[in-house]
Design goal:
alpha+beta; Umud Fragment, subunit A; seven-stranded antiparallel sheet; four-stranded antiparallel sheet; 5 helices; 11 strands; 20% helix; 22% strand
């Protein structure tokens, strides 16, 4: 005796026939066999991929590496106008954006290091009083520093620049500026350097003692550098990283070619390790 098919099969058959008549695919599928919500799922997956990519980029940029461009000649010949650098932010401890928090690093700034940092307040440029700068660290907390006839002394020892840096053009070493007056509060007397000059100049100032948790920076191009002589000691928490190498460079200030960032690349600078 014949038996009736299960009710579920009857319902399935009827649903399929009704769906075909109406032009819809059965079981929630669109024509072509794809799920009806496939487009929405694909869009959501793309959004997630973009969000993850952006998050990874921000983590790398904040805590590991960041790119910087050199806009001035204050560090010639170490760094040239038009150099683009990768900066190691992990070395001295990355800074958490929008806070005063610095995380621990694996190294401490040492004399001779080239360092990226946020400048102390520069009262003569209210439009940008705290720019991010690149200079050379010449003295750390506790050091006694002075300069005579353009020669820097640290704890009584003369600090001659490299031969390449000494070839930079010299300027007016007797030049004085009202911004030098900050030095008065750090000057000391009775040292082997003698007493500080009455009016500090570009080439003659100090002796001064670098206070705790502070650093003193100078440019390698001493006569074309607005550096610590003008705006003072740098708080340790202002340090942002250590340049590693030049990844791109072009003649930004001396080229007469169109599109110099393409036509006047300094190929020999690419990959230069910064010391």
């Amino acid at each position: 005796m014949a038996t009736n098919p299960p009710v579920s099969e009857k319902s399935s058959d009827k649903s399929s026939v009704a769906a075909l008549r109406s032009g819809k695919s059965p079981a929630g599928k669109a024509k072509g066999g794809k799920p009806a919500n496939a487009g929405g799922a694909t869009t959501w997956e793309n959004i997630k991929a973009i969000v993850v990519t952006v998050a990874i980029f921000l983590v790398i940029r904040t805590f590991l590496l960041e790119a910087y461009r050199i806009p001035s000649g204050s560090m010639i010949p170490t760094l040239l106008v038009g150099d683009w650098l990768f900066v190691n932010k992990l070395a001295y401890g990355p800074h958490v954006p929008f806070t005063n928090i610095n995380l621990p690093g694996y190294d401490e700034p040492a004399r001779g290091d080239v360092i990226v940092f946020v400048s102390p307040n520069q009262i003569d440029q209210p439009e940008d009083p705290n720019p991010t700068l690149v200079k050379r660290l010449v003295a750390v907390a506790g050091d006694t520093i002075w300069m005579r006839d353009g020669l820097l002394f640290v704890n009584g020892m003369p600090q001659h620049q490299s031969a390449a840096a000494q070839q930079n053009p010299r300027g007016d070493g007797g030049f004085s500026h009202p911004l030098f007056q900050w030095q008065k509060s750090h000057e000391v007397r009775g040292t082997r350097a003698g007493d500080p000059p009455t009016s500090p100049t570009l080439d003659d100032w100090g002796p001064m003692i670098v206070p705790a948790n502070h650093l003193f920076m100078l440019g390698d191009n001493r006569y074309d550098s607005k550096d610590g002589r003008y705006w003072g000691m740098v708080p340790r928490e202002n340090v942002r990283g250590r340049p590693v190498f030049v990844y791109y460079s072009y003649r930004a200030d001396e080229s007469d070619r169109p599109l110099p960032f393409i036509t006047d690349i300094r190929w020999g600078r690419l990959g230069t390790i910064i010391r």
